[in-house]
UniProtKB/TrEMBL annotation:
Name of this chain's protein: Stem 28 kDa glycoprotein
Function: May function as somatic storage protein during early seedling development.
Keyword Signal belongs to the record: yes
PANTHER family listed in its UniProt record: ACID PHOSPHATASE-LIKE PROTEIN, VEGETATIVE STORAGE PROTEIN 1-RELATED
Species annotation: Platanthera zijinensis
Amino acid sequence: MNLLPLLFLLPALLGLVPPMQVSAAPARQIHLLRPVMGSAGAAVKVKGVSCSSWQFGVETNSLRGWNTVPAGCESYFGHYMMGRRYREDSRAVAAAAAEYARGLQISSGGGKQIWVFDVDETSLSNLPYYSRHGFGVEPFNATLFDTWVATGTAPPLPESLKLYKELLSLGIKVVFLTGRAEEQRQITASNLKKAGYYSWEKLILRGNGALAHENALQFKSSERLKLTEQGYRIVGNIGDQWSDILGSPEGERTFKLPDPLYYIS
Ligand SMILES: [Mg+2]
């Protein structure tokens, strides 16, 4: 009896061969989607709290001021961010925003209705960076992150890009408001355009000097106040951090995208 074919089959029979890769991924991936969900999820306990419960605390702004994702949750958040669920959660928020926008009376606004978009993890996705840096488990490294930003290659968050296009078609202008430094204006503008955000009313970055002591919430609130003082009406505001959407004037409606990877106060 010829045993040779059995020798080739043996690894597969023992489960030593990885399953065939499925290539039928959805269009407009952010970054190498991995269709695995929850395998390291609720079972992963961190100090008595599951990773998914920790995530709930983060997204409801109940857990504040944290520096890193719990070490045991890297795999959980890797699966969350790279799998379908992050996209589905983003889609639910962006779809609600679009539905709200379609109900607005834009034609009577004199062209002064604006929608404020945050940049990182809202308009652009830094998943290519965070996927190489532990999905929030590693302490934030500004030098490494700025090096990544300088490449100008962050992909769009597809759900936000779709919302952006719909808002423009409705006659709502977009203002990008970001905590990125003024020195990063050129690369940020070029990255936004490359990602499909081809025009905007304003791109507001964080300048140096007297306002350097402000936290993100104070900086963004004061910039929104300036916009209203310039006669703009902020009909909507979308961001991934609570500091994007808290602080008067918040905008007539706010929308919070998911982001369990980092916290900015
Ligand atoms: Mg952000």
